[in-house]
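Field reference: "sequence" (input) and "structure" (output). Example, Translin:
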Amino acid sequence: MSIDLSFFNNIDAAMEEEAARKEEILRLVRDFDKTCRTITAILNRAHSAQAEEVPTIGSLAMDRFGEVKQHMTNLAQLVPHQQYYRYNELWSRTVQNSVFLAAFAIYLQSEKLITANELESLLGAKINLNNDLQDFHISLEEFLHSFITLTNELSRLAINSVTVGDYNRPIRISIFVQQLYTGFQLLNLKNDALRRRFDGIKYNIKKIEEVVYDISLRKLSDDTEMK
């Protein structure tokens, strides 16, 4: 009795195709990471900028999101229909980082929280708010993780703003982060990683409050800002 070896040849071909697809995804992710590093470098200027320069830095970063959108499009085209969850771990960290960078750029521009519509427009991918998308998308976890990372970055900005003599910004940051924390408190977080990182927002709030307290004690801010 002979064995039909074509069965194994088909398996081998499928494995080769899978390996090639993963390698191509990883290549695209490396290019995506490079763009994210460029945007990060632009946004980092905010930590040593004068108050009036900060919104411009946000705008300069926003100008690079056409590249981010193209990276997202390239990834989406490579992932087979309804196989998002088979490959998403290959790009999840990079997508999460890009969402954070978008949120930070929007904050520097307008001191507002990025909306779901703004993010979808910037990145060219839907947010899976109802957990019903099987094709390429931004997961709800990636969206929320980026907001937590934003509080980390804003606590750093609050400290560095004082260094350059921008004493009003930490007070506005404090109000913003408190409101964001309140929003998170409304969520019943099931994801363990999200829940652990959510607890870290409290420490960021504490660091920002210490900066604000010192500013208040030294009477460095405008009265209108303190109110």
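Residues 56 and 109 are 7 Å apart (CA to CA).
The chain has one domain: 6-226.
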